[in-house]
Amino acid sequence: MMKLFYPALFHKTEEGGFWISFPDIPECLTEGDDMTQAYEMAMDALGLALESRMADGETLPPASDPSCIAPAEDAFLVIVEFDQLEYRKKHSTKSVKKTLTIPEWLNEEAMARNINFSKTLQEALLAKCQ
Questions:
Q1: Which of 11, 62, 83, 94 could form a disulfide with 75 if both were Cys (CB 3.0 to 4.6 A apart)?
Q2: Domains of the chain with bracketed CATH
């Protein structure tokens, strides 16, 4: 899994909040009532846009050099992180069935201890993926 960082423009609104745009991802727009909410919404919107592009088989655009972006008077530049593993943990609930093989003695020992195989495998895979 990967972490990506994209520059975002946080535009101040007359109402006091922010609307956010991403120069490298024109379809990615969102808003928030305050800085905390705006940043959280920006992370979610970025995740949705990037995951959508990946699902469509598109290549992700490279992130622009922040020093090459000149914000308008009502805006300022913020770097927004996209952590693919965290995004998928939060938004993907789809399960897939996996068939695996383990030694018989290990199966018997785990069953005797009432170990949940699915939960144990998920925990082990998460530990390996981080």
A1: 11
A2: 3-91 (3.30.160.250), 95-130 (no CATH)
